UniProtKB/TrEMBL annotation:
Residues 119-194 form the Quinate/shikimate 5-dehydrogenase/glutamyl-tRNA reductase domain. GO terms for molecular function: NADP binding; shikimate 3-dehydrogenase (NADP+) activity. The active site is at 67 (proton acceptor). InterPro entries: Aminoacid_DH-like_N_sf (IPR046346), NAD(P)-bd_dom_sf (IPR036291), SDH_C (IPR041121), Shikimate_DH (IPR011342), Shikimate_DH-bd_N (IPR013708), Shikimate_DH_fam (IPR022893), Shikm_DH/Glu-tRNA_Rdtase (IPR006151). It is an enzyme of class 1 (oxidoreductase). It comes from Caldithrix abyssi. Signal peptide: none annotated. It holds the Pfam family Shikimate_dh_N. This is Shikimate dehydrogenase (NADP(+)). It catalyses: shikimate + NADP(+) = 3-dehydroshikimate + NADPH + H(+). NADP(+) binds at residues 150-155, 221, 244. Transmembrane segments: none annotated. Residues 244-262 form the SDH C-terminal domain.
Length: 281
């Protein structure tokens, strides 16, 4: 039986852990498949995507900066991807590309036990990563208020309008500059920006002390480093913290399930949770 090919497309991909994650699952499930990196530069995007459509790829992941740019090349979209307005997973069937978004599922998994108690959220950032997170937040059963804070308020407004109307949840927007003057506690604080990532380690958009109560959860989508300045500040305050590593693994598992119909074995997830921190540090 011919080996199935899967990949990740994006730019740059030097630090992507997706091949390590998916190839481990293929190995553990004894599937004749492999997963590779296909780096596409923004200036060659259209030409390379059209040639990719003629390739033998069975499926691929889409990462920064192409999650929205890929949309015109997709033949169909899942309901979630349509609502979120971004795609991170493509399944190829007889030359047709079917687009999905698993980012929101990856975000939800590490926090689903606490979700029923979360009524308010401060969402930092309004880029591609924030789209899936906002969609996931709107699935929380008790969520009442979401404040989107972004460098430019206009981008936050666009995110709010783009996600559609939810009459039971109040979504408001604010610029990061205005946020500084606001001292208000939230049940959940989520950073969806790259601030705190390797290269920006010394930075944090906010001091969580001004926006937290004793049970606030602080969730940072950054996973390299594993403890951003934001998470370090939160831990000093005795708050529960979540980094972006579980989200990375669970969004990958959801994509894997779309392609193969199979979930990751529990030993695969445990291996990744143990091994990835060593690769990052």
């Amino acid at each position: 039986m011919e080996q199935k090919r899967f990949a990740i497309i994006g730019f740059p991909l030097k630090h992507s852990f997706s091949p390590f994650i998916h190839n481990r699952a293929f190995h553990d499930l004894k599937l004749n498949s492999r997963y590779e990196k296909i780096e596409i530069t923004p200036q060659n995007f259209e030409k390379d995507i059209l040639s990719l459509k003629k390739s033998s790829l069975a499926g691929f992941n889409v990462t920064i900066p192409f999650k929205e740019k890929i949309l015109p090349f997709v033949d169909s979209l899942s309901a979630e991807a349509q609502k979120i307005g971004a795609v991170n997973t493509i399944k190829a069937v007889e030359g047709r590309w079917h687009g999905f978004n698993t980012d929101w599922l990856g975000f939800l998994k590490p926090i689903e036990r606490e979700a029923e108690h979360i009524k308010s959220c401060l969402l930092l950032g309004a880029g591609g990563g924030a789209r899936g997170v906002l969609f996931a937040l709107l699935q929380f059963p008790a969520i009442q208020t979401i404040l989107i804070a972004n460098r430019t308020k206009q981008r936050a407004d666009e995110l709010k309008e783009g996600i559609g109307f939810n009459k039971s949840t109040q979504i408001t927007t604010i610029s990061l500059e205005e946020l500084v003057a606001l001292a208000k506690p939230f049940d959940l604080i989520v950073n969806t920006t790259s601030v705190g990532m390797t290269g920006h380690q010394a930075d944090s958009l906010i001091n969580p002390e001004h926006f937290a109560h004793s049970n606030t959860i602080v969730y940072d989508l950054v996973y390299n480093p594993l403890k951003t300045v934001l998470l370090q500040q939160a831990e000093t305050l005795g708050l529960k913290t979540i980094n972006g590593l579980p989200m990375l693994i669970y969004q990958a598992e959801a994509a894997f399930k779309i392609w193969t119909g199979l979930s990751y074995p529990s030993q695969t997830i445990q291996f990744l949770l143990d091994e990835l921190p060593r690769k990052i540090s």
